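Exercise 7. Predict the structure of Decapping nuclease from Triticum turgidum subsp. durum.
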Amino acid sequence: MLLLQTYRNNLNKILATAYLKEPWKMGVHKRNGVVYLDVHKLPERPQSEIDRRRCFWGYSFENLATENSIDEDGSGIDANVEYCSVIKTKLGAHRIVMGAEMDCCDSTDDGRRFYVELKTSREVVLLFHELSVF
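Solution. The predicted structure, encoded as tokens:
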């Protein structure tokens, strides 16, 4: 049995490696029977203007989609603030303890609370060309 401690995004990187365009590097450390995974920051490529706008749109969506997200001074988009949940799960005989950033939480009528992860994506427009075969 293995005990693994990591952030959820580290597992995403491992599972999506075949599809990622950006390089990444992960450190693995084993101490007292616990394996820790940590992604090491690599120099980022400069963002284009459209990439900066898309990030801003995502933060703006999170801001608008959550209640009471506007501060007293009228600001509300702060990409440096995050809430993390600690989740325990299993994969076969192996135990995994992972932290995961959560965008917000909501509650049911009976008072139970649950986390919500907000996602945005751009609309994919497929252009088909008419082919003529003679």
